[in-house]
Amino acid sequence: MRVKHLLLIAILGLTAACSSNKEVIDENLSEAELYQQAQADLDNSSYTSAVNKLKALESRYPFGRYADQAQLELIYANYKNSEPEAAKSAAERFIRLHPQHPNVDYAYYLKGLTSFDQDRGLLARFLPLDMTKRDPGAARDSYNEFAQLTSRFPNSRYAPDAKQRMIYLRNLLASYEIHVADYYLSRQAYVAAANRGRYVVENFQETPSVGDGLAVMVESYQKLHLDELAATSLETLKLNYPDHPSLVDGEFQPKQTESDGRGWLSKATLGLIETETPLPPGETRANQDVVKQFQDARDEMPRELLPKDENGDPIVPEGPKEAEKDRSWFSYMTFGLFD
Length: 339
Hints:
With 339 residues, the protein is mostly helical. The protein has a domain at 263-308. It has 16 helices and 2 strands. It has helices at 2-20, 31-43, 47-60, 67-80, 84-97, 104-118, 122-126, 137-152, 159-186, 190-203, 210-223, 227-240, 264-268, 285-300, 320-323, 329-333; strands at residues 247-248, 251-252. A two-stranded antiparallel ribbon has the order 1-2. Helix 10 runs antiparallel to helix 11. The longest helix is centred in the middle third of the chain and has 28 residues, at 159-186. The radius of gyration is 34 Å and the shape is elongated. The protein starts with a helix and ends in a 6-residue tail after the last helix. Residues 16-21, 125-130 and 321-325 have low confidence and may be disordered. It holds the Pfam family YfiO.
C-alpha cells in the first residue's frame, strides 16, 4: 500500500508542478509586443506558448491590426502542437468570420492538412503500417477539404500541393474499398463484395485499384453463377489490365475457394442467417451436440477398459441416439410424454 500511496503522491506532485509552471502572460504587453513574442515562440517551436499568446492577443485586442493574422497563426500553432481538433475548429471559425479574407485559402489548406496528418500518429511515422487498412474517416475528410480549396481557389499557391495530396488520398480510399471487398469474399458474402468492386470501378477511375475492383466483380459473379456479368467483367479486365495478378496465362484465378456448403442467403448476410438442414421432429441442436460428445468419448475409450460379456467380448455402451432410434413419430411430436 505504501508504494501505491507514494505513486499517487508523485502523480499529484507532478500535476501540481505542471499547473504551477503554467505561463503567465504580462497584462501590460502591447499588441505588437504580444504578437512579436508569439512569433518568436513559433520560430523556436514552442507551440504551446505560442497558442497561449495568440489566444491572449485575440481576446485582448479583438479589433487590433494583428487580430486576423493572430487567428491564422493560431490554426498553424494548434496544428504543429498536435491538436487537430483545435486546429480544425480555429480554421472553421476563421472561414466563417472572414470568408472574403485574402488569406482564407490558407485556412482551407491547413484544415485539409490537419485531417491529412490526423491518422498518421507517432507509430505510423516510425512503423511500416498499411494506411489503406485503417479507418478512412480522416482521409475522406481531408480529400473533401482539399477539394473545397482547389474548387474555390484554383489559382491559390496551395492548390498544387493540395492536388497532389488528393491523388494520394484517392488511391488510399480506393485501396481501402478493395480490402473491404476482399473481406466480404473471405466471408463468402459475394453480393456485398460485388457491390464494393463495382463502387471502386465507378467512382475511383484512374486509380491502381480499378483492376482489383474488376477482379472482385469477376470472382463474385462467378460464385453467384451470374455468368453473363462475370464474362463481361472478365473481358473488361483482360482488355484494360492484361497483366493483373488474377490473370495467369489469360485465365482468371480466384482469390478465395469455397470451403463449405453454405447457402446463398447465409453468404449474402455474412452468416447472420444460416440455412441448415431441418431437424427431425423432437430433435434439437443441443441434443445432437450431446450425442456427438458421447460418441467421440466412446470411440476414444480403450477396449481393455470396457466390460466383457460371457464370451469375453467388450460390451460397447449404447448412446442416446441408438437408445431412442425405435421411437415413433408420435413420441417425437409429444416429446415422449405419452411413451
